[in-house]
Design brief:
By secondary structure, the protein is of the alpha/beta class. 42% of the residues lie in helices and 15% in strands. The strands form three sheets. Strands 2-8-7-6-5-3-4 form a seven-stranded mixed beta sheet, sandwiched between helices. It has a four-stranded antiparallel beta sheet with strand order 9-10-13-12. It has a two-stranded parallel ribbon with strand order 1-11. The longest helix is centred in the N-terminal third of the chain and has 20 residues.
């Protein structure tokens, strides 16, 4: 008998390619350009540090008592969401979570039974599959349009079965940077309404929006929650603040959802969040939310790095998708083998993420959270690797 659970084995298999990548490529060794994960490489935002320091100062005897969702945090989020998405969110529609990662797991556990299916895009974030596999839920990958990386509605429709319960929409999209149009999302909403009626069960959208505020060139944003009532939004402050180690985010219910359905989900969220291992954020991070809502990483500096890399790479013959949002570039690996390409760059201390982590072995991803100095250090190696 194996000593680990079947769920742990399934999760390990689903995340294996990421674990192997980290072991092979992420050794510290002198000067390097790290374009892999969305980690900071400079000191944190001064406002972030000040907000945490202020929030850590106790105002009451129970300042650090057990906390579920702190009222000041949920009220701040509801007001910000209402203004941003033009919908009447209430504090009761919001539960605070340990980043978007825990919000996604919470949404899955509230909506799914073992064997239920979740449609999510390929390429797409590599952690959906292990979350689902660990719990006995079923991943169903559907491709994006290979030229535009738009939602492929025909592929989504073909993938729907009587066990489909969730379609994940990640916008702005990791890794391609695509932001889906309102018109496309309305088409998806109409498709899911018809499919829900056909299979006799409501299909939900989980709108994965941690990069919602990281957009370039004035591109607008529509959340699926604006056009499809049965939408749950997950969000993380770790992206806009470039502080993924400070775990704070939320799960929000679209206020367009029928009240009876919202009430049923609200009632299910607390026991599920408790069962996840008290999946609420630390008190200090929740108290800091009113100040954190005012902060952002430097979008113009991010844009400058995007433009420097896109211009250079295209000049050398790379096929690169210019992102509308997120802090990633997505492109075709020279020679069609992203692992071999990543290894050639690693020999020169330049580290990119091969598309094998996204089940796309011919592509690669560059993370723009690297410093401007790292970009300049990497350019000669990227030029040489193009040929």
């Amino acid at each position: 008998m194996p000593i680990v659970s079947e769920g742990a084995r399934r999760a390990g298999e689903a995340i294996r390619v990421v674990s192997e990548f980290a072991e092979q490529f992420l050794e510290e060794d002198g000067q390097r350009a790290d374009f892999t994960f969305g980690n900071p490489h400079e000191r944190p935002l001064a406002g972030l540090v000040d907000a945490i320091k202020t929030a850590a100062e106790p105002h009451t005897n129970d300042w650090f008592a057990y906390k579920t969702s702190v009222e000041s945090a949920t009220e701040t989020v509801a007001a910000a969401l209402s203004a941003e998405l033009r919908l009447p969110f209430k504090a009761a529609d919001v539960t605070m979570t340990q980043g978007a990662f825990k919000a996604i797991a919470l949404a899955f556990d509230v909506l799914l039974n073992p064997g239920d299916e979740v449609i999510h895009p390929k390429p797409g974030w590599f952690a959906y599959s292990p979350i689902l596999a660990h719990r006995g839920y079923v991943s169903v990958h559907t491709p994006l349009d290979p030229q535009t990386y738009d939602l492929d509605l025909d592929a989504i429709e073909r993938a729907i079965t009587p066990r489909t319960r969730i379609v994940v929409v990640n916008t702005p999209h990791n890794p391609t940077g695509r932001i889906y149009s309102r018109a496309r999302l309305k088409e998806l909403a109409a498709l899911l309404d018809k499919a829900s009626e056909r299979i006799g069960a409501r299909i939900f959208i989980l709108s994965d929006e941690p990069y919602r505020r990281i957009r370039f060139d004035g591109v607008g944003f529509t959340s699926p929650a604006e056009v499809y009532p049965w939408t749950l939004i997950d969000y993380s402050y770790g992206k806009i603040l470039l502080s993924p180690g400070q775990r704070i985010g939320y799960l929000a219910l679209s206020p367009l959802m029928p009240e009876a359905d919202r009430e049923a989900l609200r009632a299910a969220i607390f026991p599920t969040q408790t069962a996840l291992g008290w999946g609420f954020p630390d008190a200090t991070m929740q108290y800091a939310i009113p100040e954190l809502e005012k902060l952002s990483l430097d979008i113009p500096a991010l844009t400058a790095k995007r433009d420097r890399l896109v211009g250079s790479l295209r000049q050398w013959g790379y096929r690169i998708t210019e992102p509308e949002g997120t802090f990633y570039l997505w492109g075709d690996a020279p020679g069609g083998d992203s692992l071999a390409f990543a290894r050639r760059l690693a020999e020169k201390n330049v580290f990119v993420m091969p598309g094998t982590l996204f089940d796309c072995p011919a592509q690669f991803r560059i993370c723009l959270t690297a410093t401007a100095e790292m970009v300049e250090f990497a350019l000669p190696a990227l030029r040489d690797a193009a040929f």
